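Q: Hi! First time doing this. I have a protein sequence and I read that you can turn it into a structure. Is that right? Here it is:
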Amino acid sequence: MNVSDIMSSPVFIMGPDEPVSRARNLMLKHKISTVVVGDGEKMMGILSQADLSRKLAQAEPVWKRRPIDKIPVSMVMTENPITIYPEASISQAGNLMLENNINYLAVIKKGLVGIVTGTDIVRYVSKLDEKNFDKKVYEIISDEPVRIHRHHTINHAIEEMEKNNVDEVLVVDDAEKVVGLISFNNVALNIVAGADGELPTKNIKMARRATSGGQKAYRYIKEVPLVAEDIMSDISTIVKWDDSAVEAAKLIVEDNSRVLPVEKDNEIVGVIRRKDLIRIAQ
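A: Yes, that's right. Below is the predicted 3D structure, encoded as structure tokens:
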């Protein structure tokens, strides 16, 4: 098999002046992670969920507080994306992604003919015959997972992902128990500024000291920044330590996820990432 057998085609194409809000809506509606930005037949760039998340991590307040329907995709996209030919092997595509720390490649042959993503490669692994491909999860998981507290800010989560070159962080409570997971997907699709230019906030209710009558008076504090527990994904799908890599790939595809927690002896001991499966794709 080669790239043309697993790539997505046709692809979703947006004009450079269209807003980020439409790209976000396309990603949500069609469960995709990338859209192509083009002008006529010319490809100008690619916009991914990771692009959105990394822009949100920038320090400039002007960027963060711009309304999502006022930001053109050309400001966020990756220009001059890395390309590959449709006749290239799946392993060549995987190696290009890993070497350049990206999740997609534009497939070119006299123009754009498709997009191949990490998910496409993981889907390929999920269809392999386990009898001929007997790798186990514990053989392929790599680094120790990064953990943050459930009350840490979203910016802290993004900074930890960037610093450790990972697509996710595990969220823990005061007892260090894993209670959720945040990925670039959570960030990109949850905390872009709204049409009024404001970042999402939450209302919290705080009790004051009880009055002489025994009743508590309350006050409401608005515009409290979201924290990790507000956007994290619940851990509903878990990969077992001794599951096959093929089974893990199936679970990641079914869950539409970049990463899933790995359990051993009823404890979360690590994660299996999409790139772990890309690395072993032949």
